[in-house]
Amino acid sequence: MSEKLQSKENVMGTMPEGKLLFTMAFPMVISMMVQAFYNIYDSLVVASFDSAGVTALSLAFPIQNLLIAFATGTGVGINSYLSRALGEKRPDKANKAATNGLFVIAITTVLFMLLGVVGTKAYFTYLTDAEPGTLTYDLGVDYLFVVMVACAGVFFQVTFERLLQATGKAKLSMYTQGLGAIVNIILDPIFILGAGDELFGITLPFGLGMGTLGAALATVIGQFTAAGVGLFLNLKYNKEISLSFKGFKPDLQVIKSIYTVGLPSIFMAAVGSFLTMAINKILTIGEQVTYIKEGMSPATAAKLAAERLVGVSIYGVYFRLQSFVFMPIFGMNNGMIPIVAYNYGMRSKKRIMKTLKIAVMAAVIYMLLGLAVFQTMSGTLLKVFYQEDEAPEAGTLESLPEEELPSLDGEAEEEFHLTETQAVLKYGEPAMRIISLCFLFAGVCIITISSLQALGLGMPSLIISLIRQIVVILPLSFVFAKAFGLVAIFAAYPIAEGVALIISIFLFVRTYKKLLKPLDLPLEAVQASTN
Length: 531
Fold this sequence. Notes:
Shape: globular
Low-confidence stretches: 1-9, 390-415
Helix content: over 70%
Number of strands: 2
Oligomer: single chain
Distance between the termini: 36 Å
Structural class: mainly alpha
Strand content: under 5%
Number of helices: 19
Number of domains: 1
């Protein structure tokens, strides 16, 4: 074997750690940033069609995120198993990881398609207490139904990207995700807006005017494009693995190994989706409590909070904006996992630890920059989505019967004449400053959890996720909503992130002693001690 070929094959075990992490992570960070930009852009185009569309997309987000959870969680399991197999010089195991991974992804796709057909309308009825015909309900159903029924695109896009990442071809992975987002960006204004509509001050000469339905179609077309390119790149350039299904039989042991790591990751993200559904309900409670504290009658407060969903809007905008902070960390994270897994297979503790140190330092620095932006520019960021208006809209207190209006003077009365947009801007600015405090802890927590996944340990990530979201965020946000109102709900997030950081560090230290420290010993000595 030539020296050039050997160097290429062993790049994850030979290249200097900092350069390797940058080489692996940079393409994924770029593609993640493109994806983050798309998330913002998509919402801005929908907002140009109708501001209710932004709220509809926010309500659809938990289910859409559930799709991504199953895709990325399975991908993490495939990635970890495949990279460790390559590090052990076992191409047979690597091939089985790829083919069995694609097999389970196909089954998952069919299940979610059926769920979309039977469950989309029921989901929006439960979440909004609205009947068909309500604007937010109809826009949300249009969007989510298409995304669910055509979910094959996102599942296979993510899987093909993970196969490329696992073998060190991160640059090719960047092409697939980046191309999908670019196609989506091009199609969005064409499908969503109509001729004569304005986007960023420019009048469009043509457009289909399909609203959120057009947004969904643009999304799935972009995903199928990326999936097709990902398949082509794997077949042509990914020579470390074979995607041939000739004589294929499902290998339950390989599938079990994939989901040993992947299932906790799926549950971790899925719990986040269910949490978001619950938080959307709790945000309405907090909004109602806020109005009551400011002098509104309970009946009127409940009616207005259910109609306007101001808290849901703030929450949805925050999650779109914070993707610019978290997406690059996730990109670096995806580049780090195969490096750690490969070098664990090679028993190189030094390279593992140096990679982790560099990743943690980069994550902390970037998160601090994100925190500075959110602390100083929250109001400006919100105004990108919600332009200040002066005239009260239908559904505000000015449109209610006179006998329902509270007789208040001065500043208190002004609170009840806020339009929905004005309320989003007023309560959203302090809320975003509070929730962004979680950036102080999140970077280290993400890298620590992912290092455990790379070592084949998926359960710690599940434990941390359950504690963070179910044990801390959910009860705290409910208590804060009932006691203090809308803005206070967001304080549950930085508290939970601090708790998660402490637990993740404890689990990593324990894992270091059990799995990484013995790598300093000869393999024969370790085998003898376990016999």
